[in-house]
């Protein structure tokens, strides 16, 4: 029996002790975070799955793990098929599966600090058809058997300087207070960690790759704010920064405090807050005002200081990545490097600048067949040598005090095949289609996703992930509410109108299972576009590309590009060379100049 098989068996024993016939284990925490601290990695501990999104459902006689198209290959490599059924979402949801497989009259447990009220309603409806019930547990049964579960991080809070943030915390809190008054609400509960960090101009170190602190906040209509956080995290500089209008409380007291709003109207995001918060407020006599977290949109529309900071971060990050790409070309064909050693080398280049705070996610260093796993995560067990004849995909980013970066490039190890060049060029055309898109203000991301897919669809190809996600300002590398994705893509944010100031990724791809993966990713800023002869009363938007790094020219087949597409590549490369060359050693700058030469000269 494997460790994970033994853990599954132990969980079933624990469920029996708690008089439960099943249990649902999502990959999240009490803040519904995408990336979670080690203490909340219940899904990985139980199943072995290392992706960033998934859910497990355990019954007495069967178990299923649910993942989306990004993890179709990865979940099968990491999770034992003898113990788990693999189920794809959104085609089949955990609630759908329970409706089919839960025993009649079953008691299915869930942790109310890990699910939304909407999920609870959906699952309860599904179970009702089998006369089964959903049961909120007071103690998570996974925690009961996870004897070496890590403790939450003790990392202290740090101040995010107002000059970098572009606005003071006091002004942000005043704006949210005005929002509350406009809705006749007395307070709003903020549970998303990046929303709290943005609101208070603080950062933390409790989650790998995301500079946030485990905390909750309640902002009142007069602007006063109660922050619930471990007291030892708040040092004198942070207390002085927050001032008297932000009252500090122990995070352990948050749940009890929710009972103190009797007769008051409290705003809560029904999609962004766990059901335990809603239940505690209601039990205490509060009236819930269902509103989306008001910080989401304010945080998504970057101010001039945040844009300037990101441009500065992109320069230093692009210089580090360029040095790395030259290293890959010179070193990896010898066959002596591996996915892990390459990731370490890129990290070293980024660290040489002295300003890197962290990587913005676990670097995807993937060669050959591993590149066909969009969110592959290299481990000592999976680490593969980078060999001639392969494509090497590197998707990585940095966390800097002035910006968060995310970029993907692909390098051939030796000479690429004609098929590789064809597929790469189609992905490049898809990338250019987004980079050059022009659309009316308020167009939703789901409407432009197909722009990217057309060059692939024309060849009977596609990719199983979204085309773009929002990104934070020294915050989460995946930030809503904006997204470029098909409307039915998991996450439900593809219908958010795009507005000037929003940053997104532009990352179409192609993946040939068992062979290679291709993705070209830059970050872009949504900006107004003046259209000659257009309707003067209609605001049009487009994208400015922020990321600066060469796109591998030996993988481009210029004959597949239109004149305008070739012109875009040449103009982008001219910008890259001009911006990065002054930051590079002479040999790297010379190499970059060759990589950025006009395609017509190829």
Brief summary:
This is Aminopeptidase P family protein. The protein has 19 helices and 28 strands.
Describe the structure.
The protein has 3 domains: 3-145, 3-Layer(aba) Sandwich (Creatine Amidinohydrolase, Chain A, domain 1); 158-298, 3-Layer(aba) Sandwich (Creatine Amidinohydrolase, Chain A, domain 1); 301-558, Creatinase/methionine aminopeptidase superfamily (Creatine Amidinohydrolase), CATH 3.90.230. 34% of the residues lie in helices and 20% in strands. It has a 6-stranded mixed sheet with strand order 4-3-2-1-5-6. Strands 12-11-10-8-13-14 form a 6-stranded mixed sheet, with helices on both faces. A hairpin with an 8-residue loop joins strand 22 and strand 23. Helix 4 (94-101) packs parallel to helix 5 (117-128), helix 14 (304-331) packs across helix 15 and helix 16 (418-435) runs antiparallel to helix 17. The radius of gyration is 25 Å and the shape is globular.
CATH class of the largest domain: Alpha Beta
Please list the strands of the largest sheet in the order they lie side by side.
4-3-2-1-5-6
Shape: globular
Task: Assess the beta-strand content as a share of residues.
Answer: 15-25%
> What name is given to the CATH topology of the largest domain?
Creatine Amidinohydrolase
Instruction: Quickly give the structural class.
Output: alpha+beta
Total beta-strand segments: 28
CATH superfamily of the largest domain: Creatinase/methionine aminopeptidase superfamily
Reported for the largest beta sheet, the result is:
6 strands, mixed
Question: What average pLDDT do the residues reach?
Answer: 95
